[in-house]
Amino acid sequence: MAYEILSLDAVAGYLHLTPDDVAQRVKRSEIPHEKRGRRIVFSKEEIDQWASKRVLSLPGQRLTEYHRKTTLGTRQIVSSRTLLPDMIQPGFIAPALPAKTKSSVLHELVALAETTGRLNNPRELVASLEAREALCSTGMPGGFALPHPRVPDPYLFESSFIVLGRAVQNIFFGAPDGNPTDLFFLICCQDDRLHLHTLARICLIAKKTAILEQLRQSPDASSMHAALLAAEEEALAETIT
Q1: CB 73 within 8 A of CB 198
Q2: N or C: at which end does the chain have fewer Cβ atoms within 10 angstroms?
Q3: Which fold has domain 5-57?
Q4: Is 16 a catalytic residue?
Q5: d(CA 34, CA 170)
Q6: Does the domain formed by 73-239 have CATH 3.40.930.10?
Q7: How confident is the model over 164-211, as pLDDT tens digits?
Q8: Mapping DSSP to helix (H, G, I), strand (E, B) and coil, where does residue 197 land?
Protein backbone atom coordinates (compact mmCIF):
# COMPACT_ATOMS: atom_id res chain seq x y z
CA MET A 1 0.00 0.00 0.00
CA ALA A 2 1.34 3.46 -0.89
CA TYR A 3 2.65 5.69 1.89
CA GLU A 4 -0.12 8.27 2.17
CA ILE A 5 0.36 11.63 3.89
CA LEU A 6 -2.53 13.52 5.47
CA SER A 7 -2.92 17.15 6.49
CA LEU A 8 -4.09 18.23 9.92
CA ASP A 9 -7.56 19.06 8.60
CA ALA A 10 -7.83 15.68 6.86
CA VAL A 11 -6.86 13.84 10.05
CA ALA A 12 -9.40 15.85 12.04
CA GLY A 13 -12.17 14.85 9.64
CA TYR A 14 -11.15 11.20 9.65
CA LEU A 15 -10.95 10.99 13.45
CA HIS A 16 -14.18 12.96 13.98
CA LEU A 17 -12.26 15.63 15.91
CA THR A 18 -11.82 19.36 15.38
CA PRO A 19 -8.53 20.71 13.97
CA ASP A 20 -7.88 22.32 17.37
CA ASP A 21 -8.31 18.92 19.06
CA VAL A 22 -5.71 17.41 16.75
CA ALA A 23 -3.35 20.38 17.18
CA GLN A 24 -3.50 20.01 20.97
CA ARG A 25 -2.71 16.29 20.68
CA VAL A 26 0.27 17.15 18.49
CA LYS A 27 1.55 19.60 21.11
CA ARG A 28 1.26 16.93 23.79
CA SER A 29 2.83 14.31 21.47
CA GLU A 30 -0.29 12.15 21.89
CA ILE A 31 -0.73 11.46 18.19
CA PRO A 32 1.86 10.27 15.63
CA HIS A 33 2.98 13.10 13.34
CA GLU A 34 5.93 14.49 11.39
CA LYS A 35 7.28 18.02 10.98
CA ARG A 36 8.17 19.06 7.44
CA GLY A 37 9.45 22.57 7.75
CA ARG A 38 6.58 24.53 9.25
CA ARG A 39 4.01 21.92 8.27
CA ILE A 40 2.66 19.17 10.47
CA VAL A 41 1.76 16.06 8.47
CA PHE A 42 0.54 12.58 9.36
CA SER A 43 1.13 9.09 8.00
CA LYS A 44 -2.20 7.50 7.08
CA GLU A 45 -0.99 4.07 8.24
CA GLU A 46 0.17 5.38 11.63
CA ILE A 47 -3.09 7.29 12.13
CA ASP A 48 -5.12 4.16 11.33
CA GLN A 49 -3.21 2.20 13.94
CA TRP A 50 -3.42 4.96 16.55
CA ALA A 51 -7.14 5.47 15.97
CA SER A 52 -8.00 1.77 16.31
CA LYS A 53 -6.14 1.48 19.61
CA ARG A 54 -7.78 4.68 20.84
CA VAL A 55 -11.31 3.46 20.13
CA LEU A 56 -10.67 0.15 21.89
CA SER A 57 -9.48 1.94 25.04
CA LEU A 58 -12.22 4.56 25.40
CA PRO A 59 -14.15 4.45 28.71
CA GLY A 60 -17.94 4.48 28.87
CA GLN A 61 -19.05 8.09 28.43
CA ARG A 62 -16.21 8.98 26.08
CA LEU A 63 -17.06 5.93 23.98
CA THR A 64 -20.70 7.03 23.79
CA GLU A 65 -19.67 10.51 22.66
CA TYR A 66 -17.18 9.18 20.13
CA HIS A 67 -19.80 6.79 18.76
CA ARG A 68 -22.18 9.73 18.33
CA LYS A 69 -19.51 11.55 16.29
CA THR A 70 -18.76 8.53 14.11
CA THR A 71 -22.48 8.06 13.49
CA LEU A 72 -22.68 11.62 12.15
CA GLY A 73 -19.44 11.21 10.22
CA THR A 74 -20.56 8.09 8.36
CA ARG A 75 -24.05 9.14 7.29
CA GLN A 76 -22.90 9.49 3.69
CA ILE A 77 -21.75 5.87 3.52
CA VAL A 78 -24.17 4.14 5.90
CA SER A 79 -27.75 4.09 4.69
CA SER A 80 -29.29 2.74 7.90
CA ARG A 81 -28.93 3.56 11.58
CA THR A 82 -28.05 -0.09 12.15
CA LEU A 83 -24.83 -1.67 10.90
CA LEU A 84 -25.11 -5.34 11.77
CA PRO A 85 -27.95 -6.47 9.45
CA ASP A 86 -25.78 -5.59 6.41
CA MET A 87 -22.52 -6.87 7.85
CA ILE A 88 -23.26 -10.22 9.49
CA GLN A 89 -25.50 -13.18 8.71
CA PRO A 90 -26.07 -16.45 10.59
CA GLY A 91 -23.70 -18.15 8.15
CA PHE A 92 -20.95 -15.73 9.20
CA ILE A 93 -21.03 -17.10 12.76
CA ALA A 94 -19.16 -20.15 14.07
CA PRO A 95 -20.55 -21.17 17.49
CA ALA A 96 -17.85 -23.77 18.19
CA LEU A 97 -14.38 -22.68 17.06
CA PRO A 98 -11.91 -25.47 17.94
CA ALA A 99 -8.93 -23.06 18.19
CA LYS A 100 -6.62 -23.39 21.18
CA THR A 101 -4.12 -20.59 20.50
CA LYS A 102 -4.16 -16.97 19.38
CA SER A 103 -2.63 -17.89 16.02
CA SER A 104 -5.13 -20.66 15.37
CA VAL A 105 -8.03 -18.33 16.22
CA LEU A 106 -6.90 -15.86 13.56
CA HIS A 107 -6.52 -18.59 10.93
CA GLU A 108 -9.93 -20.09 11.73
CA LEU A 109 -11.61 -16.68 11.59
CA VAL A 110 -10.09 -16.06 8.15
CA ALA A 111 -11.26 -19.50 7.01
CA LEU A 112 -14.75 -18.51 8.15
CA ALA A 113 -14.39 -15.18 6.33
CA GLU A 114 -13.60 -17.07 3.11
CA THR A 115 -17.03 -18.73 3.23
CA THR A 116 -18.78 -15.34 3.09
CA GLY A 117 -17.74 -14.74 -0.51
CA ARG A 118 -16.59 -11.24 0.46
CA LEU A 119 -12.88 -11.91 1.04
CA ASN A 120 -10.44 -11.54 -1.85
CA ASN A 121 -7.09 -12.55 -0.34
CA PRO A 122 -7.09 -14.85 2.73
CA ARG A 123 -3.30 -14.96 3.06
CA GLU A 124 -3.01 -11.18 3.02
CA LEU A 125 -5.73 -10.92 5.66
CA VAL A 126 -3.97 -13.39 7.97
CA ALA A 127 -0.72 -11.45 7.64
CA SER A 128 -2.46 -8.15 8.33
CA LEU A 129 -4.27 -9.53 11.39
CA GLU A 130 -1.02 -10.91 12.79
CA ALA A 131 0.73 -7.58 12.20
CA ARG A 132 -2.07 -5.73 13.99
CA GLU A 133 -1.96 -8.07 16.98
CA ALA A 134 1.82 -7.64 17.18
CA LEU A 135 1.28 -3.91 17.76
CA CYS A 136 -1.25 -4.36 20.56
CA SER A 137 -3.81 -7.04 21.34
CA THR A 138 -7.38 -6.39 20.26
CA GLY A 139 -8.58 -8.42 23.25
CA MET A 140 -11.03 -6.53 25.45
CA PRO A 141 -12.11 -6.80 29.08
CA GLY A 142 -15.14 -9.06 29.32
CA GLY A 143 -13.77 -11.93 27.26
CA PHE A 144 -14.24 -10.64 23.69
CA ALA A 145 -11.82 -9.48 21.01
CA LEU A 146 -12.09 -7.35 17.88
CA PRO A 147 -9.34 -8.49 15.50
CA HIS A 148 -9.04 -6.42 12.35
CA PRO A 149 -6.48 -5.69 9.61
CA ARG A 150 -3.56 -3.46 10.47
CA VAL A 151 -4.76 -0.94 7.88
CA PRO A 152 -8.22 -0.89 6.25
CA ASP A 153 -7.81 -1.96 2.60
CA PRO A 154 -10.66 -1.38 0.12
CA TYR A 155 -9.23 -4.01 -2.25
CA LEU A 156 -9.03 -6.82 0.29
CA PHE A 157 -12.80 -7.28 0.49
CA GLU A 158 -15.71 -7.33 -1.95
CA SER A 159 -17.77 -5.53 0.71
CA SER A 160 -17.56 -4.85 4.42
CA PHE A 161 -18.52 -7.63 6.82
CA ILE A 162 -18.07 -9.16 10.27
CA VAL A 163 -17.59 -12.79 11.19
CA LEU A 164 -18.03 -14.01 14.76
CA GLY A 165 -16.42 -17.04 16.34
CA ARG A 166 -17.21 -18.53 19.75
CA ALA A 167 -14.31 -20.64 20.95
CA VAL A 168 -14.96 -24.01 22.57
CA GLN A 169 -12.34 -23.22 25.19
CA ASN A 170 -11.04 -19.96 26.62
CA ILE A 171 -7.93 -18.55 24.95
CA PHE A 172 -5.45 -16.08 26.40
CA PHE A 173 -5.51 -13.43 23.70
CA GLY A 174 -3.75 -10.56 25.48
CA ALA A 175 -6.75 -8.73 26.96
CA PRO A 176 -5.73 -5.86 29.28
CA ASP A 177 -7.46 -7.43 32.28
CA GLY A 178 -5.37 -10.59 31.87
CA ASN A 179 -8.43 -12.80 31.52
CA PRO A 180 -9.05 -15.25 28.65
CA THR A 181 -11.20 -14.62 25.59
CA ASP A 182 -13.89 -16.76 23.98
CA LEU A 183 -15.78 -14.39 21.63
CA PHE A 184 -14.02 -13.09 18.51
CA PHE A 185 -15.49 -10.47 16.14
CA LEU A 186 -13.38 -10.25 12.97
CA ILE A 187 -14.05 -6.80 11.50
CA CYS A 188 -13.40 -6.38 7.77
CA CYS A 189 -14.20 -2.93 6.40
CA GLN A 190 -13.43 -1.37 3.03
CA ASP A 191 -13.74 2.20 4.29
CA ASP A 192 -11.59 3.57 7.12
CA ARG A 193 -14.40 5.72 8.51
CA LEU A 194 -16.72 2.70 8.60
CA HIS A 195 -13.93 0.70 10.27
CA LEU A 196 -13.70 3.10 13.23
CA HIS A 197 -17.48 3.40 13.43
CA THR A 198 -17.87 -0.38 13.50
CA LEU A 199 -15.27 -0.72 16.27
CA ALA A 200 -17.12 1.90 18.29
CA ARG A 201 -20.52 0.28 17.59
CA ILE A 202 -19.49 -3.18 18.82
CA CYS A 203 -17.73 -1.77 21.89
CA LEU A 204 -20.86 0.25 22.67
CA ILE A 205 -23.13 -2.79 22.32
CA ALA A 206 -20.83 -4.79 24.60
CA LYS A 207 -20.89 -2.08 27.28
CA LYS A 208 -24.57 -1.11 27.07
CA THR A 209 -26.23 -4.53 26.80
CA ALA A 210 -25.91 -8.10 28.05
CA ILE A 211 -24.88 -9.34 24.60
CA LEU A 212 -21.66 -11.07 25.66
CA GLU A 213 -23.44 -13.39 28.06
CA GLN A 214 -26.29 -13.88 25.59
CA LEU A 215 -23.82 -14.96 22.91
CA ARG A 216 -22.26 -17.44 25.31
CA GLN A 217 -25.63 -18.95 26.19
CA SER A 218 -27.13 -19.04 22.68
CA PRO A 219 -27.41 -22.62 21.36
CA ASP A 220 -26.59 -21.95 17.71
CA ALA A 221 -25.56 -19.42 15.05
CA SER A 222 -29.12 -18.32 14.29
CA SER A 223 -29.89 -17.45 17.90
CA MET A 224 -26.52 -15.70 18.27
CA HIS A 225 -27.31 -13.62 15.19
CA ALA A 226 -30.76 -12.70 16.48
CA ALA A 227 -29.28 -11.70 19.85
CA LEU A 228 -26.74 -9.43 18.13
CA LEU A 229 -29.35 -7.60 16.08
CA ALA A 230 -31.57 -7.11 19.11
CA ALA A 231 -28.65 -5.85 21.20
CA GLU A 232 -27.72 -3.29 18.55
CA GLU A 233 -31.26 -1.94 18.56
CA GLU A 234 -31.21 -1.80 22.37
CA ALA A 235 -27.91 0.08 22.46
CA LEU A 236 -29.03 2.56 19.79
CA ALA A 237 -32.33 3.25 21.58
CA GLU A 238 -30.33 4.31 24.63
CA THR A 239 -27.63 6.38 22.96
CA ILE A 240 -28.97 7.87 19.69
CA THR A 241 -31.80 10.35 19.46
Answers
A1: no
A2: C
A3: Multidrug-efflux Transporter Regulator; Chain: A; Domain 2 (1.10.1660)
A4: no
A5: 41
A6: yes
A7: 999 999 999 999 899 999 999 999 998 888 898 999 999 999 999 999
A8: helix
